[in-house]
UniProtKB/TrEMBL annotation:
Belongs to the NEMF family. Transmembrane segments: none annotated. Associates with stalled 50S ribosomal subunits. The keyword Electron transport does not apply. It comes from the Archaea. Residues 462-571 form the NFACT RNA-binding domain. It comes from Methanolobus vulcani. GO terms for biological process: rescue of stalled ribosome. This is Archaeal Rqc2 homolog aRqcH. GO terms for cellular component: cytoplasm; RQC complex. The gene is rqcH. The lineage of its organism: Archaea, Methanobacteriati, Methanobacteriota, Stenosarchaea group, Methanomicrobia. GO terms for molecular function: ribosomal large subunit binding; rRNA binding; tRNA binding.
Length: 663
């Protein structure tokens, strides 16, 4: 599986972040977080698009992301210092350095220019430079041969490689002549391409990749130059074809590589296309990173549950041991009483010997000799002169007898031990009840906790709502998603809506072959008008119409030009006049747990805690925060609300432009 971005990936990323619908130029920088040692997340406010997150993992990846790792409770020094220098600043440029795995992001704040340099080659770094390219702050202060990445030093790029985009036949001749490796390895290392793209260049050029580079002639070099130009032409023209390449892993098709353009070496592999390379990168890298965090959280939760199970097992083992030990002590006491006369005789004999002046060593010798003739002497296993006691083997039961005590007193010693063990057993039984009670409370707490469904649906990347009659209505968010809906998801049996005025998304009712009732048509008409430029302009009504899919065409009239996301509508239109704008936000809490938005009647049908909005004076983020606070107050569960209806998620469901909460 791909571990890090290639130079071609960085080129495609820089292209998207600096132009078109995915541009972050002029975006305002909000807070910066460091959720992992090599990773920062920059919260951005993009004009007319709301809040977004740029995730950068040094030495590995950079992309806009919807898969966010949780922020640490205590912020680290690096993001705090970045906030000091660039928070509230505005992004002025995003570019790649010399077709290398280096991304540069320009920032201006209060007339002061800075540059955030992102090194995506291993081991990677993130470095903030001033306008004279002196290092203000590195994520990781390091010293390499010829490079010092430390505050106050002038930033130096790593040793330059030959750019495959600008490479000439002379460049290839010189590189190949000096190489001791084969063609594919030489291209991979000297042209900063990596193994996959080097394989692709060889495949397109028809050159034997295993042939020694020194032996490639002028025809081979020309073929490689031609292959390089054709390979990277989409990166220069902006005609990207972002996709994930999938391979089977344990019976399941899983992402194996992410690409900004299609490669012939993967022609037989299963692929998933994406409208933007950022979206593909987020699905490949961001989703995996978020899932790894979730797995770790699940493991911690399991560990907490296992603590109770282990504690309970230890307590049960202790009770079993206490019970067995108490029975053993009682059994010894009973055996002592059962052999009362014999034990008393042994004690008396030993006492008399001591009274006559025999030493313990002499007594031990006498006992040893008497074992063959005196039966009771056989019972004595050991004599402890220091303690003044003897160990007797009473029919397999060993008992320690203190000769200074009477027989009942010796037996009582064992009864007392049994009593203490019984008390410990009773204490352990009570502890078990406490543990079981704690487990029950935890299980009850877990069962009472609101469950969050993490299931994702294909349409959630677009604007959407479910009508009161159960029909899915889906619309584009921008030019790219407009194109995607028409090309990928619109079917002949569907119904298409659009507004009379420009600035509205293509909206499709997914009929699945069923008759669509008037109520769904009315709701869709209100949705189309409300999520268009009509709302943005502060108007309270507008006109729209519906048509059939075959009336939507990408072919313009002769001499005309259609920009991306635009379509030609031909034929009769079915109008809805003077449709009132209205929208609402709600929470879906049964089955799927998520925030929903759309026409008020549809949201009330499927959601709870409905909040209506109207055109107003507050931007999307401010209104989203207000609604978020309402939900936290109503549900009294901040964590649950944050998971399903964070301000960012609520903002995604609001109409474009400024709004206010309807009182």
């Amino acid at each position: 599986m791909k571990k890090e971005m290639t130079s071609a990936d960085v080129a495609a990323l820089a292209l998207e972040l600096s132009s078109g619908e995915t541009s972050i130029i002029d975006a305002k920088i909000a807070k910066i977080y460091q959720p992992a040692p090599d990773e920062i997340r920059i919260n951005l406010f993009v004009y007319e698009k709301g809040r977004h997150n740029l995730v950068i993992e040094a030495g590995k990846r950079a992309h806009m992301s919807q898969h966010i790792r949780p922020s640490p409770k205590i912020p680290q020094s690096f993001p705090m210092m970045l906030r000091k220098h660039i928070m509230a600043g505005r992004i002025t440029f995003v570019k790649q350095y010399d077709f290398d795995r280096i991304l540069e992001i320009g920032v201006v704040r209060g007339g002061v220019d800075t540059v955030l340099v992102v090194e995506l080659f291993s081991p990677g770094n993130i470095v903030l430079l001033d306008s004279e390219r002196k290092i203000i702050l590195p994520m990781k202060p390091v010293t390499f041969k010829g490079r010092r990445i430390r505050s106050g030093e002038v930033y130096q790029y790593p040793e330059a490689q030959i750019s495959p985009v600008d490479a000439t036949a002379n460049d290839l001749e010189n590189v190949f002549a000096a190489s001791d490796a084969d063609v594919v390895r030489t291209i991979a290392t000297r042209f900063n391409l990596g193994g996959v793209l080097a394989e692709e260049v060889c495949a397109r050029s028809g050159v034997n990749k295993s042939e020694p580079a020194k032996e490639i002639g002028s025809d081979g070099i020309e073929a490689i130059i031609s292959a390089l130009q054709k390979l990277f032409k989409p990166l220069l023209s902006g005609d990207l074809q972002p996709c994930l390449v999938k391979k089977e892993d344990k019976g399941e098709m899983k992402p194996f590589d992410v690409l900004p353009l299609e490669l012939s070496i993967y022609k037989d592999s299963e692929k998933e296309s994406f409208p933007t390379f950022n979206a593909a990168l987020d699905e490949f890298f961001g989703k995996a990173a978020a899932e790894s965090v979730q797995e770790a959280v699940t493991a911690v939760k399991k560990e907490k549950v296992d603590i109770f199970a282990r504690r309970l097992q230890k307590q049960e083992d202790a009770i079993d041991k206490f019970g067995k030990d108490a029975d053993k002590q009682t059994r010894i006491a009973e055996v002592i009483y059962a052999n009362y006369v014999e034990i008393e005789q042994i004690i008396n004999v030993l006492k008399q010997a001591r009274d006559k002046g025999y030493s313990w060593d002499e007594i031990k010798s006498i006992v040893k000799k008497a074992k063959d003739t005196v039966p009771a002497a056989k019972w004595i296993e050991n004599i402890n002169s220091a303690e003044g006691n003897i160990v007797l083997n009473l029919d397999g039961t060993r008992a320690t007898i203190d000769i200074k005590l009477t027989i009942p007193q010796n037996a009582q010693v064992y009864y007392d031990k049994a009593k203490k063990l019984t008390k410990k057993k009773d204490g352990a039984l009570k502890a078990i009840e406490d543990t079981k009670l704690a487990m029950q409370k935890r299980e009850k707490k877990v069962s009472n906790r609101r469950k969050v469904s993490n299931k994702k649906y294909w349409y959630e990347r677009f604007r959407w709502f479910m009508s009161s009659d159960g029909f899915l209505v889906v619309a584009g968010r921008d030019a790219d998603t407009n194109e995607e809906i028409v090309k990928k998801y619109m079917e002949k049996r569907d119904i298409v809506f659009h507004t009379q005025d420009p600035g509205a998304p293509i909206t499709v009712i997914k009929t699945i072959g069923k008759d669509v009732p008037e109520s769904t048509l009315q709701e869709t008409a209100q949705f189309v008008v409300s999520y268009s430029s009509v709302w943005k302009s502060g108007q309270f009504s507008g006109d729209c119409y519906w048509i059939k899919p075959e009336q939507v065409s990408k072919t313009p009239e002769t001499g005309e030009y259609l920009k991306k996301g635009s379509f030609v509508i031909r034929g009769e239109r079915n109008y809805f006049r003077d449709v009132q704008v209205a929208a609402a936000i709600g929470l879906e809490l049964e089955g799927s747990t998520r925030v929903i938005g759309g026409p008020t009647s549809a949201v009330r049908k499927h959601g709870q805690h409905v909040v209506e909005v109207v055109p107003g004076k507050y931007n999307q983020n401010d209104v989203a925060k207000k609604i978020y606070k309402i939900y936290v107050e109503k549900l009294k569960d901040t964590n649950f609300v944050k998971q399903i209806a964070s301000p960012d998620k609520i903002a995604m469901m609001l109409p474009p432009g400024e709004s206010d909460i309807k009182v």
